[in-house]
Design brief:
It contains twelve helices and eight strands. By secondary structure, it is an alpha/beta fold. It has one domain: Rossmann fold (3-Layer(aba) Sandwich), CATH 3.40.50. Helix 2 crosses helix 3, helix 4 runs antiparallel to helix 8 and helix 5 crosses helix 7.
C-alpha cells in the first residue's frame, strides 16, 4: 500500500501490475478492499490502481461534505502524482457518480469508462431527506448498526442466506469507515448533480455492469445508461445484487477483461 498527499489530505492506494492503467473507485461506505478480486486477477495484464477515498480505509479521516467534484479532484491529483495521463476509469455505485464528475471535468484523462451498479439520476427530495436522517443516526450512534442493514440490501438474497463470510466481510468494511466518511459521503451523495445530460456527451468506449438482482441501482438504470451512451455495452451479472464485484467476481472480471482487451 502506498500513500501520497493531495490538497493536504493523505490518500492511500494500491498500485499493482504493469501496462495500461485501470483506476478502480469504490462505493459508499466501503474502501479499496472491495476490489481485492479484481486487482488479483487483472493486475497480471494491467496496471491496477485502487485508492481509498478520503475518509475511507487508511486514507485521512477528514470532516466535511465529500462532493463528487472534490472526490474527482482527489483522483486527478492521484493520477498526476503517478504521472498517468489517461486511464480506464471503473466506478462502482458512488464511484460511478464520481466517474461522471471526473468525466465532466477531465474527459481527456479517460481512455475508457466502466460504470458498475450505478445510476445517472440525482437524488429525489425524499432520498435527500433520508440521507440526512441516516447521517444524523451515524453521528449519534456510529455506523455499525446501519452497516448490518445496508449489507443486507446490497447483497442478493441468496448471498445473505448462504454466504455468511461474505456478509461479515462487507459489514466489516463498512464498520471500519469512520463517522466522517459516512457523513461526508451521505451529504455528498445528496448534493450530487443529475448526470442524465452527461450520458449523451460520453464519447469514449463504455462498459456498463449490473447485478441482475441489484435492488439499490436496479438493472433498469443500467439499461437507461446503455441506451443514452453511444456505443455502450451492457453486461448483466447473474446471481448478484448491488455488490456484483464482490458477489460474483469471476463473471465481473471476465466482462471487464473482455472489454479491456477489446
Amino acid at each position: 500500500m502506498a500513500k501520497t498527499t493531495i490538497k493536504r489530505t493523505k490518500i492511500t492506494y494500491s498500485d499493482r501490475g504493469q501496462g495500461d492503467a485501470v483506476l478502480f473507485v469504490h462505493g459508499f461506505p466501503l474502501n479499496k478492499s472491495m476490489w481485492k478480486a479484481q486487482l488479483a486477477s487483472l493486475s497480471r495484464h494491467y496496471r491496477c490502481i485502487a485508492p481509498d477515498l478520503r475518509g475511507h480505509g487508511a486514507s485521512q479521516d477528514v470532516p466535511g461534505t465529500y462532493t463528487v467534484d472534490i472526490l474527482a479532484d482527489d483522483l486527478k491529483g492521484l493520477l498526476n502524482h503517478l504521472g498517468l495521463r489517461r486511464v480506464t476509469l471503473v466506478g462502482f455505485s458512488m464511484g460511478g457518480y464520481v466517474a461522471f464528475a471526473f468525466y465532466r471535468k477531465y474527459p481527456g484523462s479517460v481512455r475508457s469508462l466502466v460504470l458498475a451498479d450505478t445510476r445517472p439520476q440525482a437524488d429525489s427530495p425524499e432520498a435527500k431527506q433520508g440521507r440526512e436522517a441516516t447521517a444524523q443516526t451515524v453521528l449519534r450512534e456510529g455506523g455499525a448498526g446501519i452497516a448490518k442493514t445496508l449489507a443486507g440490501r446490497m447483497l442478493a438474497p441468496a448471498s445473505v442466506q448462504q454466504r455468511p463470510a461474505l456478509v461479515q466481510s462487507v459489514q466489516a468494511i463498512m464498520t471500519s469507515t469512520p463517522v466522517n466518511g459516512w457523513v461526508g459521503d451521505l451529504r455528498g451523495l445528496a448534493a450530487r448533480p443529475d448526470s442524465m445530460d452527461t450520458l449523451a456527451k460520453i464519447t469514449c468506449p463504455t462498459l456498463i455492469l449490473v447485478g441482475d438482482q441489484d435492488a439499490v441501482t436496479p438493472p433498469a438504470d443500467s439499461q437507461l445508461m446503455a441506451q443514452r451512451i453511444r456505443g455502450a455495452k451492457l453486461v448483466t451479472i447473474p446471481q448478484a445484487g448491488h455488490l456484483a464485484p464482490m458477489e460474483q467476481p469471476r463473471a465481473f472480471n471476465k466482462a471487464l477483461r473482455e472489454f479491456l482487451e477489446g
